[in-house]
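Dear Dr. L.,

I hope this message finds you well. Following up on our conversation about the binding site, I have prepared a predicted three-dimensional model of the protein together with pyridoxal-5'-phosphate. For your records, I am including the exact sequence and ligand specification that went into the calculation, followed by the structure tokens. Please feel free to forward this to your student if that is useful.
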Amino acid sequence: MKRLLKSLPKVDKVLLHPEIKRLLERFPRWMVVESVREVIAEKRERILKGEADERLLEIERVVAQCIERIEEKSLPSLRKVLNATGVVLHTNLGRAPLSQEAIEHVVSVAKGYSTLEYNLEEGKRGLRYTHVSELLCRLTGAEDAMVVNNNAAAVLLVLNTLAKGREVVISRGELVEIGGSFRIPEVMSWAGAILHEVGTTNRTHLKDYRNAIGPETGLLLKVHPSNYRVMGFVEEVSLKELVGLGRETGIPIYQDLGSGSLVDMRHKGVPYEPTVQESVRAGADLVSFSGDKLLGAGQAGVIVGRRELIEKIRRNPLNRALRIGKLTLAALEATLRLYLEGEGVWEKLPALKMISTPVEELMARASQVVEGIRELAKKGFVIGIEKQHSAVGGGALPLVEMPTVSVTLSHESVMASEIEARLRASHPPVISRVQEDKVCLDMRTISEAEIDTLVGSVLRGLHQ
Ligand SMILES: *Cc1c(COP(=O)(O)O)cnc(C)c1O
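The resulting structure of the complex is given below.
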């Protein structure tokens, strides 16, 4: 052990190696030195554990590892991955990818100055919401609209504006937790509103709401149970009935729609998901939804509804802390414009396109991938194609699994979890699903244009 520790290369010596010296021209000195130190420290540790031999300490080997380390450090932390999970709106992987139109608009706004809060006609200060509010009204039928940082912010802002210090009536069946610690009762208390729950987990009646209404009531809230369903002996009060009660008592109705689709998905063979238009038509005074779920834009929270309520929300000082950035606003405007084109939106918006891709097309993609990675069979990998089911995600279409096609990978002597980890460590990383001891590469979330990249990355990840 002593002998090994003695032959451990010194940091200074490694730094003088010609290949490392060349790296110093490309990367900052601190990054190179830190990497060399780390690699040597790890070797020392392995010697002390009795895991190292001379071969491990060869200078060429140490240098190669340092180079790898430096390259890893120079990569951005937030980086592109290939989503082979089949989950179209994967919150951890950034939800909806943007359309080409949205990307171009973001780039043009990002490059220089813009009319973000500037009224060109009058040469005066304008409102950032004007770029999308007219589009949102046209698309949803609402009187007015505004946008904030995300839908969680929208819920907080609406509750704070309309129900601070007052009661909000909500069914016990709708006290949801969305994930990422967004829970209705907690948001309610942060907003300064008082939760008044009615009914039971499985059944709530109109009379439950009616009995709860009093001088303290500020709002009737309806929340879309995005990620779960109560089944069996159930009853809920429809938005329409609730609106009737609201009109009778003069209390506004607010619906948190969660995903909030702007198109009817059923004619594309996708199960029913309520649309924003339906909620507006049913008479909701306010409706809020996410920008990056089924809508297919960037992270944003959209609020549509009655003009005087929107005006009040806009003027809430809290709004300043929750406001939307210009880049996401640009993505949102370009995305909304695609919806004005009608059917064209299904082609141009990646999220909608992925959701509606027919199984035959997924099958064709799978064949292409299998063709590309065929050589892995020589290394003992078993490659197959399977028809499966996978979730859409993003709190949309809960429990609904769409038919899909996956390329499957397994190996007699390599565990599926190990294959999954190697794919994740490849460049770009491939995020896959493990199912029945096989790694599944779901074709629903791999676009035509990404197939070659996927093939390259899988080969790199599994070659060794
Ligand atoms: C997703 C969701 C939210 C939170 O929306 P974000 O845009 O992620 O902040 C709130 N309510 C419901 C019902 C949701 O599904």
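In brief: Residues 150-152, 155, 178, 182, 223-224, 226, 256, 258-259, 290, 301, 395 surround pyridoxal-5'-phosphate (CB under 6 Å).

With kind regards,
A. P.
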